[in-house]
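Lab notebook: predicted structure, single chain.

Context: the supervisor wants predicted structures on file for every construct in the current expression panel, including those that have not yet been purified. This is the next one on the list. No modifications to the sequence; it matches the entry in the shared construct table.
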Amino acid sequence: MLTSSEQGDLYIVISAFLGDDPSIKQYKDAFSEFIIKVIEKIHSTECRNTIKSRWKSSIISSAI
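Prediction complete. Output recorded below exactly as produced.
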């Protein structure tokens, strides 16, 4: 499990890719190592305009 500080830092990274999103932010306290793998996939994606629609559900489901 990630520390509260690490979860906050991870949300900052997610926000850098997807923008501030309350529906993702509500799961911040449940962020774990699984979500890091999703972020790594986002980082390797070239088409930034479709990132949010493509990855938002993956981020939320990995936090549940």
